[in-house]
Amino acid sequence: MDSAAVSTFLAELPDLGSDIDDAARIDLLRTLEELKAACAGAQARVTADLDASIRASRADQGVPRNQQGRGIANQVALARRDSPFRGGRHLGMATALVHEMPRTLRLLEQGILSEWRATILVRETACLTREDRTALDFLLCADSSTLDGLGDQAVCAKVRAAAARIDAEAVVRRARKAVSDRRVTSRPAPDTMAYVSALLPVAQGVAVHATLARDADAILAAGDARTRSQIMADLLVSRVTGSTAAAERPVITVNLVISDQALLGGGCEPAHVQGYGPVPAALARQWVSDAASAESESGALLRRVYANPQSGALTATESQARCFPTGLARLIDLRDKTCRTPWCDAPIRHHDHIQSRHTGGPTTAHNGAGLCAACNYAKQGVGWNASAHQQPGKAHEIELRTPTGHRYRSTAPPLPRPLRIRGTEVTSPVERLIIHYLHAA
Predict the structure, then answer these.
(1) Does residue 84 sit within a domain?
(2) Which of 257, 317, 332, 413 could disulfide-link to 272, CB 3.0 to 4.6 Å?
(3) What average pLDDT is seen over the chain?
């Protein structure tokens, strides 16, 4: 079956379940769930075949072995409209299922095992050798009833126990290595909140939570009006920042992009916080007011940025430097906000020449792109190409071409729109205000 036949089948899916009774709808839900799993199995086979084909082709071309796989995960991610990180996971899972865990793959293709539970099997056996992994695959998946009826946690526990029985030393080594992966991350949450997560060894993680809970209980018992969860959160902030009052917090740089109308004219267009995303205009104005009234001399710094009044496209400046100067790099960061690869929303780590420098690409905003490290390295692979496009008054665009000839477009997100003057748009770019230094909110 080719992609055209699959597309025809997809076109018929919306009409399913319109003229049937509820019992039939339940049966249809089960069948569709099995279909999803079977599709995941088919994707795994196609992905593994793609990986093998590209590697074989590059080997014939004399590409060094350690470079033969470069960019394959990125192509998988683009095809699946996913981030490069997830593309790498899809590729790793596909090769493991096809080459090392055929019985797990068979259950997935039959719709008996969901894609997520197949992922658990692959993830929890990653520390084993190929032979031991295949043995565990036979132990747990040769009979479809072994995992039948188990939830995600139960499947995970069963796989871990089986892996420990097969190779206890490998499991211990994996646990020791995991300590080196400890880290703290943050990501946006709804309603202008943020998740701050810490990956710690289990003893330390439990100790941190238990200490916060113990101290929160003591404060709560003294009659504090806050909830236990609120107290724990406030204790965490005060102990990490070393301060308890807002006025005592150290000054931290927060880039806030807000239109002149939203800041000065009471407009309602959302502002944008770099590293977070859109925030309500009223809240942004409150932050600006708080920073401006702060006693610290560096409470707020205004920086003007010019944007097209119709499209919101950021204007460019040019430089003859090989590396992007600080001001130009900042402009690219504000324009692109996150990695410019489609479906990748990772933070910008590299400022890349879209047309490479050694082929004459200039160091300009038009020829610059903000990329995460993984996407920048993938773009250097054999067969990858990119070009920049920007029509007057339009947002900056990048066309990315993969080694298979597929093309993907990335358009820079617009800035907040400028102020209307006397009912008409101004003819020249309107100044925008960036609040460069704010106290941590």
Answers:
(1) yes
(2) 257
(3) 83
